[in-house]
UniProtKB/TrEMBL annotation:
Belongs to the complex I 49 kDa subunit family. It is an enzyme of class 7 (translocase). It is found in: Cell membrane. The lineage of its organism: Bacteria, Bacillati, Actinomycetota, Actinomycetes, Streptosporangiales. This is NADH-quinone oxidoreductase subunit D. It is a peripheral membrane protein. The gene is nuoD. NDH-1 is composed of 14 different subunits. Subunits NuoB, C, D, E, F, and G constitute the peripheral sector of the complex. Keywords: Cell membrane, Membrane, NAD, Quinone, Translocase, Transport. NDH-1 shuttles electrons from NADH, via FMN and iron-sulfur (Fe-S) centers, to quinones in the respiratory chain. The immediate electron acceptor for the enzyme in this species is believed to be a menaquinone. Couples the redox reaction to proton translocation (for every two electrons transferred, four hydrogen ions are translocated across the cytoplasmic membrane), and thus conserves the redox energy in a proton gradient. Its EC number is 7.1.1.-.
């Protein structure tokens, strides 16, 4: 009698199961995620809990600012240019007016130069305080953001007093500043700087000695110096990976050539190093602001802007101006055909390069570490999409 042949398939269930094949999962983070200072989407490919591929998808906030520049005169483009990084509005204005002044062969009066430098450093501190407060919040620490906003408000008061704006200052003009500094403003600013310097220890004590924060950030999201250079990453992120470069010291503009600019660096390149760079940079910027106030007190009375014609036309030609913005290097390529509007104004924003390196940084990390890494990259999404 012939024996019947059978095929048996054993299926393991539970801990004893051995998977013959795995299937990757696609996970979309955003575009409404609250932890990215704007509307960013990340398309992650996961193998279990580990990220195998990451694609930053941008464009959800695109406003076509570069095209709008072409139909605005050289005064009007300032109001558009200060909005792409809403935490660094004064610094954004600077790049535009510096490029236009270079094309005109114009120099701003000394009082304007020193006042611009002072306001740029105050704006830098405001930017950094926002990230110093919001980053711990993203990894579970709620208290620091209240201390950060307490210090921000002291500087916001003096910035609002001098310019009339809290976020979009519109205080720069081609040839200088909008108007003279208010009477007694420098004394109030000096007190605000001293108060912020004293209050920074509260933020540092809350975070840097917190073992949970250090566990979530030390050795996590390491960016190498080579990756920084390949992707054009700049600012505190680059300096946290050992890239010792700062335009304020290495290619000075405004009054930075007459100041002792301390460049803060680290070598670890992880989330903790980026946070520490940002924290130390606040102290360095407060020192620069004090030095600017000292210099302003020594300057004799004089104008704070240049008189300009009602219709401002720029000679035909092109120029490139770059500045050390709070988030990194901003570049402005201005092309003129001798008209009252730019033929082309190309903006190189720091956040664009800072976010594109995520495609190389995130793979290999756990999903649980993604927010810790994302928050430490210090970008504003409007600065990407512009």
């Amino acid at each position: 009698m012939a024996k019947r042949m059978t095929t048996e398939r054993i299926v393991g269930i539970g801990a004893g199961a051995k998977e013959l094949a795995t299937e990757d999962m696609i996970l979309n983070i955003g575009p409404q995620h609250p932890s990215t200072h704007g509307v960013l989407r990340l398309r992650l490919t996961l193998d279990g809990e580990r990220i195998t591929a990451a694609e930053p998808i941008i464009g959800y906030m695109h406003r076509g600012a570069e095209k709008l520049f072409e139909v605005r005169d050289f005064r009007q483009i300032i109001v558009l240019a200060n909005r792409h990084d809403w935490l660094s509005a004064f610094a954004n204005e600077l790049g535009v007016v510096l490029a236009v002044e270079r094309m005109l062969g114009m120099e701003a009066p000394p009082r304007a130069v020193w006042a611009r430098t002072l306001l740029a450093e105050l704006n830098r501190v405001l930017n950094h305080l926002m990230f110093l407060g919001s980053y711990p919040l993203e990894v579970g620490a709620m208290t620091p953001i209240f201390y950060a906003f307490r210090e921000r408000e002291q500087l916001q008061r003096v910035m609002e007093e001098v310019s009339g704006g809290r976020m979009h200052y519109m205080f720069n003009r081609v040839g200088g500043l909008k108007e003279e500094l208010p009477a007694g403003w420098t004394a109030r600013t000096r007190r605000a700087i001293a108060d912020v310097r004293a209050g920074m220890s509260d933020i540092a004590d809350l975070i840097l000695d917190n073992e949970i924060f250090r566990a979530r950030t030390r050795g996590v999201g390491v960016l190498t110096r080579e990756q920084i250079l390949q992707y054009g990453v700049s600012g505190p992120i680059a300096r946290a990976s050992g890239v010792d470069f700062d335009l304020r010291r290495d290619e000075p503009y405004l009054a930075y050539g007459d100041l002792d600019v301390r460049v803060v660096t680290r070598t670890e390149g992880d989330c903790l190093a980026r946070f520490e760079c940002l924290l130390d940079q606040v102290y360095a910027s407060l020192d620069l602001a004090d030095a600017c106030l000292d210099r302003l007190a020594e300057l004799p009375p004089g104008p704070i802007n240049q008189r300009l014609p009602k219709v401002l036309k720029i000679p035909e030609g092109h120029t490139y101006a770059w500045t050390e913005n709070p988030l990194g290097i901003n570049g402005y390529y201005l092309v003129s055909r001798g008209e009252k509007t730019p033929w082309r104004l190309k903006l190189r924003s720091a956040s664009y390069n800072n976010v594109q390196v995520l495609s190389e940084l995130l793979p290999g990390n756990l999903v649980a570490d993604m927010i810790a890494i994302l928050g430490s990259m210090f970008f504003v999404v409007g600065d990407i999409d512009k």
